[in-house]
Design goal:
The chain contains 17 helices and 14 strands. It has 505 residues and is an alpha+beta fold.
Length: 505
């Protein structure tokens, strides 16, 4: 008797996919455990960094620690690029979303200079600004943008074409439907800070980069910080990497000068230490003040509750080991980093890394939180599930799924022989032939088109940000589609032979 099986989407493969998805969902960060008493132990901190880097295969990292108004620890680890040049505290890295705190600082500088009002509508400074709802457009204020409470969604579209500009990205919002009424709910969305960057340019008549260079980098003696990618390259910019199934591969991705207000500033860990000193000391840097103490308090004041933090202005606020923490991470397809301020204790931590992975928690974030924990009396332990181990599990799962597809392809003749006697039965035909082939053809479409949509990526961005998993998805989708088409061709040939032989369908 014929036994019904979904040959192309077998129970074995489904279990593999479920295990794969479960592993992704369960990927966690480094556990942090409290310890009695504390004293800054630089050797222990360095060993912790090196252990995490080995476990996660991080090519290079830089760490800075400040206490009150002084830099107390600086160190580079690993290599800055394929040439083996070591990372130093002066090595520049791309900052990702840590750039947002600089944008917020610039806005507050202009507020204190009397050039901006946080509660004024964006239209007051950008008369051409639009979202889909004209009424909502008129109600969005600078404060809403700073707190990510404007209603602009995370998946808002970016501009397309060449060259891309900051203004073009802001104009691309004109078709966006807001997720909620302005000022009512927090949704972290980078376009908010793109709009703020455009406002800075409109008010100052300077490019965003020039303003940051003149009013933040220069007064804070941030001499290894850049708004020019070529300048950073000549000064030893660290090579970015992406993890391909757990192994770092150098990745030269296009530099997005058009997204500097939200993701593309460049700085060394030593310079970010100087920046943190100003943040911890009411705007007073080593030699100059960049903001009033009240202005800094507003930047750090928690207002908009998020998932596990409260958003301030360019900073997130929470706790680390029971101590109030002001922090923000940066995530790019080939760099990751995090800044942590512990204002009640005077400690500040910066960690920059030259690798990125979509899977698991960022090593940089675990390191920054772990070091901060150690500084306030806790003990940070390396993760029990490192990125290397996590990727090993994923790779095994992916290989099993692919091997099962290959087996289905090699045995497609047997499948055809098994189902051919049932071509004349409508019910068995649908169950044993139509449904399996439809699944074989539909699943590749769901994987390649549906997954990027769910993640909020374009297909190009999906392959750029997650090159290893997206490449495997393309492979498995191609295999599935090929097997489906082969089965369809075999069934079609059988129908033709039956018709020529005069056999009823």
């Amino acid at each position: 008797m014929f036994q019904y099986t979904l040959t192309g989407v077998s129970r074995f493969r489904i279990w593999c996919i479920l295990c794969y998805c479960f592993t992704l969902l369960c990927a966690g960060g480094a556990p942090v455990h409290a310890a009695a008493g504390h004293q800054a132990d630089w050797a222990a901190i360095d060993q912790y960094v090196e252990a995490m880097m080995r476990a996660d295969r991080v090519p290079g990292a830089a760490v800075a620690i400040v206490k009150n108004d002084s830099i107390v620890h600086l160190k580079g680890f690993g290599v800055a690029g394929p040439d083996g040049q070591p990372v130093t505290p002066q090595t520049p890295f791309l900052l990702g979303s840590m750039s947002k705190s600089f944008t917020a600082l610039a806005i507050m500088q202009l507020v204190e200079a009397g050039k901006l009002d946080l509660d004024a509508p964006v239209l007051h400074y950008l008369p051409w600004f639009r979202v889909a709802d004209p009424s909502a457009t008129a109600r969005i204020t600078l404060r809403h943008l700073l707190h990510h409470t404007s209603g602009i969604p995370t998946k808002a579209p970016r501009a397309e074409g060449v060259p891309l500009t900051l203004e073009a990205h802001v104009r691309a919002l004109q078709t966006v439907q807001l997720q909620h009424e302005p000022g009512t709910s927090h949704e972290y969305a980078s376009p908010n800070y793109q709009v703020l960057g455009a406002i800075i340019e409109a008010v100052t008549q300077q490019s965003f980069g020039d303003y940051i260079q003149q009013h933040v980098f220069t007064p804070l003696n941030m001499h290894q910080s850049y708004v020019s990618y070529p300048d950073a390259q000549t000064q030893g910019l660290s090579q970015g990497h992406q993890l391909w199934f757990g192994y770092p591969i150098a990745a030269d991705l296009p530099y997005e000068v058009d997204r500097q207000p939200t993701a593309s500033l460049i700085a060394s860990v030593e310079d970010l230490a100087r920046y943190e000193i100003a943040q911890l000391n009411g705007g007073q840097g080593e030699t100059a003040r960049v903001l009033s103490a009240d202005g800094v308090r507003q930047l750090h004041h928690p207002v908009a509750p998020g998932e596990d933090y409260i958003y301030a202005m360019g900073w997130r606020v929470g706790t680390i080991h029971g101590v109030n923490a002001v922090h923000h991470g940066g995530v790019l397809p080939n760099y990751r980093g995090k800044m942590v301020l512990l204002p009640d204790t005077g400690w500040g931590v910066v960690v920059l890394t030259n690798v990125s992975s979509f899977v698991g928690r960022p090593t940089s974030h675990d390191l920054a939180d772990g070091i901060a924990t150690m500084l306030v009396g806790g003990a940070a332990a390396p993760s029990t599930l490192s990125l290397s181990r996590l990727y090993l599990l994923l790779t095994i799962g992916l290989l099993l799924i692919t091997a099962n597809q290959v087996k289905d392809g090699l045995l497609v003749g047997r499948w055809h022989a098994r189902v051919r006697p049932h071509l004349g039965s409508r019910s068995t035909y649908i169950r044993h032939i139509v449904v399996p082939i439809a699944l074989e053809l539909a699943i590749p479409i769901v994987l390649v088109v549906g997954l990027p949509y769910v993640l909020g990526f374009s297909l190009r961005t999906f392959f750029q940000q997650i090159p290893d998993l997206s490449s495997w998805l393309a492979l498995t989708a191609g295999l599935g589609f090929t097997i489906g088409m082969l089965k369809l061709a075999l069934i079609g040939r059988s129908h033709l032979r039956q018709r020529h032989a005069g056999v009823p369908k």
